[in-house]
């Protein structure tokens, strides 16, 4: 099994917001948390839309 490759958010068009979308066969909305209780950054999933085929 291959190890998961770490990803980093390098740029956001909305500097005052901490949410971002990732799209492929579905759209996923995430919230970026710069530091959690352990001092580690992470992204928390908020919502998923699987009806992307109808959004053309």
Structure, described:
The chain is mainly beta and 56 residues long. Helix content is 0%, strand content 36%. The protein is built from no helices and 3 strands. It has strands at residues 19-23, 27-33, 42-49.
Task: Give keywords.
mainly beta, three-stranded antiparallel sheet, extended, 56 residues
The 3D shape can be described as extended
Q: How many DSSP-defined strands?
A: 3
The end-to-end distance, rounded to whole angstroms, is 35 Å
Largest sheet: 3 strands, antiparallel
Q: What is the share of helical residues?
A: under 10%
> How does the helix and strand content classify structurally?
mainly beta
- Rg over CA atoms, rounded to whole Å, is 14 Å
Strand content: 35-45%
- Mean pLDDT, nearest integer? 78
Q: How many helices?
A: 0
The largest beta-sheet arranges its strands as: 1-2-3
The low-confidence runs, each spanning 5 or more residues with pLDDT under 50, are none
Element order: H for helix, E for strand: EEE
Provide a quick synopsis of the model.
With 56 residues, the chain is mainly beta. The chain has strands at 19-23, 27-33, 42-49.
Give the SSE map:
Blueprint: E1 19-23, E2 27-33, E3 42-49
Antiparallel strand pairs: 1-2, 2-3
